[in-house]
Amino acid sequence: MAIGTMAVVDPPKEFVPIPETAAPLRLTGWDHIAFSVPNLEEAERWYVDVLGAEVIGRRNWGGSVDPMRPHVDIRIGNQVVSLFLGEANGSANTPHMFHYAFNCRNLDELEQWQGHLRSRGVDLRANGVFHGHPGMGAVSVYFEDPWGTRLEITTWLPDWATAEAEVRGRGGVIMGEDAPPRPAH
Asked: The whole model's pTM is what?
């Protein structure tokens, strides 16, 4: 299946039926995500120190001789992130909504992450206030790694009414409603 155009196309305003799959089975989720960083040693240290990642393997650097491109595999929760040596994702051509989202168990943990990121000097979007996602129970904090990769930590509350009350009660913003303008990238 080839995509005919790479231009941004406004979605139709009228009803469009939700497509049904012809796939013979269902995927179970992500195996890993991969992106590039300009310095593997610094990136490995930052993801371990700031986000609590566990290094699970180095390829073709740091004592490893391997035919693969130089990278480090780290685990964050149950997810694997492969950091490859290369140009940073934060370059000017990165699509606006391109980001990676991690999750935590509850609002108390999200507050702890918010404080931890601040204590590490991480630049949090909108000064780190909680962001509510209209119509769903998701509450998030947004930030970037030192190389400009956009990151998010999200927790899920039972429903939108609970999430909205918690976000507003903590001085947060509702996405699309009262979120401050994003900086141009």
From this structure: 0.76
